Amino acid sequence: MESSTPVAGGSEFADVQPHILCRSGDVAPYVLLPGDPGRARLIAKHFDIARKVAENREYLIFTGHAGGVPMAVCSTGIGSPSAAIGMEELGKIGCHTFIRVGSAGGMQLNVNPGDVAIVTAAYRGEGTSKVYLPPEFPAVANLEVTLALMEAAKRLGYPVHVGLGSSGDAFYAKKPEGHTEMLHNAGVVAGEMENSALFIVAAVRHWRAGAIVAIDGNIVRRERKTPGTEQLFQQAVEREIQIAIEAVKILAAQDKG
Prior knowledge:
Elements: E1 30-33, H1 37-45, E2 49-56, E3 59-66, E4 69-74, H2 80-92, E5 97-106, E6 116-125, H3 128-132, E7 139-140, H4 143-156, E8 161-168, H5 179-185, E9 190-192, H6 195-205, E10 208-218, H7 230-256
Parallel strand pairs: 1-4, 1-5, 5-10, 6-8, 8-9
Antiparallel strand pairs: 2-3, 3-4, 5-9, 6-7, 6-10
């Protein structure tokens, strides 16, 4: 994987996005969005061809092909602010379809470490999306992307949970009394920190966004990822990557048709 990271000061730097350090034409239009740069490297290894485009701050970007379909991966770091910035800048250079490939904690008793969940919509517990739209506006995944993820999981034979998510800020802060119970009782499947903001940004900018997450613990049972569940979690990560790549192939075929 060779690098083509632009260098500040050159004539080509004028149209480069300030955080992802990419310009129009650098990145394929279908983008997978993990938080972890390490997962971005792992996803790139699943491409048939992958080229490192840029690396700056939390943003590590590879573009390439899988099964003849152009696709890319860009890590976004932790939380909604950096995820929204990454999506905004990717959209400015021509990207239009985004799938978050993340991790989350289960919020139902039957959602366990090693499971995979497709998120259809998300509770807006983070602050970033509220700058874009009032809290009454729903954060909903694009239907085409969600259906493609579901079809991809079916084709690959991987079981998945499908349902609501919850996105929040302040990982270590104490939550309001009854908050977790409320989300659990409302049927929320998984909690994380980015999905709702990405869904809202995509809605405002008229892009497509969906999400799939690997489960690393259970929030209701107050269980976080441990060395004992690491292997299960990594298996889930492998499965969500395969599902996301297959979903992009499905979407690209539909778009071409």
